[in-house]
Design brief:
Layout: E1 25-31, H1 36-46, E2 49-51, E3 54-57, E4 68-71, E5 76-81, H2 83-90, E6 95-100, H3 104-120, E7 135-138, E8 147-152, E9 157-163, E10 168-174, E11 179-181
Antiparallel strand pairs: 1-5, 1-6, 2-5, 3-4, 7-8, 7-11, 8-9, 9-10
Helix pairs in contact: 1-2
Length: about 180
Amino acid sequence: MTVLVPTAPTASLIPTCALDNPDARWHVLHVRSNQEFAVSKFMQALGAGVFFPTLRKPPRRDKHRGHAESPAFQGYVFVHACDQMAYEADRTRRLVQIITVHNQERIAQEIAGLEITLAAQPLAQTYPALKIGLAVRVVSGPMAGVHGIIASRSQAHRLFLNVETLGQSIGVEVDAQDLEVLND
């Protein structure tokens, strides 16, 4: 089976939208599984501003390789370009959707903060946005498999384990990295 890898279009087909163009804005590209690197390279080849944060994972004990790079936000690439250039990525068939960013100022601040943080802490980790009242499941550690509801946020999250029959709960502290958000 032959797999065609899209390359950047020829110069005559590239949408003209310089990064300093007032029409350039942030777009979030929701990409198909394991397509983050390819889409980011494609958009860079087009001349778009790309923010694709990666995290260094510590080497596994059973492997002697160095630190591996993985997307900080799996499935997403941030692109600063005009709309036409963002839609070029859609033609690669590597996208799920283009997410419209309404608050450009906020996303610019968030990206600037992420750049500073990742430069200072290359071994940082991402976590789901854990909000109070969110149903979660513990995925690792001695409590693996336990379901509960986030009750408070701190260094370790306070998790309530409900016993509905009794109308009572038990509260425990669990690290965010050990939690998985449950779908409703």
